Amino acid sequence: HSVNGVRNRFGGAARARPADPEFHPLLERLQRLQTSGAIGLRVQKTNEKEATLMTLRGRVDEAIEKDSVDVRKMLGLDPSAQEFSVVYASVAKNDRELAILSRSILEIIIDLASYIDVPDVHVQEKRVNPTPMEEVPPGVTLIPLMRIHSSREKPVDAFVAVPYRTHWFWIDDRDLPSKRMFSFLMFIFTLVETGGKEGAPIVTIPAG
Question: What is the pLDDT of residue 139?
Fold first, then answer.
């Protein structure tokens, strides 16, 4: 949701807002740092408590070093420090702390729903809000986390498709990132499922 006060977009109708101008450039630089191995996390025990630390490596090539400097500036971090405490909060208390505010599963689903390509007729009938068009800084390519298309005709090459109010809503089977995101959500739902305690299945193995 936010890193040191730099906020991501949110697509929920009641709290809809675009991402801060720094968010997408920050994300791109963090991804490059992670890919290069210049950034890492470790857990350290201090006073019987576990603390998570983020480390930015010092010896890197020139391009990665520039990304590291830019990330520190965007997040207001100490330019000379290599280790930063990671906490769950909206605002950091000093320049050696990384305050990360995450989202609940419900908030993630609400945001993903804002990417749905809703039919114009449903918008005109006031059934749904229109799909928001987000403005991004020049040079930044915004790729939706999950593309959900809509059409009156049943799709012929869909990974998953659901009919609703004379339209089909579907994910293209050739859209690998969207398929990954959908599968990840299904996996999360499986992990958080709660139900009654059922007996373990009994397997009979013939011995004779």
Answer: 64
Per-residue DSSP letters for 139-197?
Answer: T-----S--BEEESSPPSSEEEEEEETTEEEEEETT-HHHHHHHHHHHHHHHHH-----
Residues 6+ apart with CB under 8 A from 9: 17, 18, 19, 23, 111, 134
Question: Across residues 121-149, what is the average pLDDT?
Answer: 79
Q: Cα separation of 194 and 64, whole Å?
A: 44
List the domain boundaries for the chain.
2-101, 105-192
Question: In this structure, what token pair is assigned to residue 86?
Answer: 């990671």
| Range with lowest mean pLDDT among 6-10, 43-47, 120-124, 132-136 | 132-136
Please report, for residues 13, 83, 126, 185, the alpha-carbon distance to residue 109 in angstroms, rounded to integers and kept in the order given.
13, 33, 21, 9
Residue type for 176, please?
L
pLDDT at res. 48: 66
Q: How deeply is 67 buried, as exposed, middle or buried, from its count of CB atoms within 10 A (0-12, 13-18, 19+)?
A: buried
Q: How far is CA 123 from CA 10, 120, 143, 164, in A?
A: 20, 5, 23, 14
Region 2-14 average pLDDT: 82
Tallying the residues shown for the chain, one arrives at 208
